[in-house]
Design goal:
mainly alpha; Helix Hairpins; 0% strand
Length: 91
Amino acid sequence: MYVVWVLLAYLVIYIARVIRGPSIWDRILGMSLISAKIILILVAYASYTDSTNPLDFAIVYALSGFIGTIFISVFLSERIIADKNKRGNKQ
């Protein structure tokens, strides 16, 4: 069960990364790392308790975290491109 405590410590470090990230891409990376650590905590808990229910939650959380990261990245990249095009038209 010490693994869960170590993963929680890393989780706190990644939360600080999300809060202090110098760019939006660092914050997205931090959120992705937080998602990965939560999945690892669920898998470790399932292994510790010999239960399969947390594994189902881990799979669903992994899929939703991946899709969310992709959507946010695409949205931000399109927004950055649109902002560059606006600035180019004004000059």
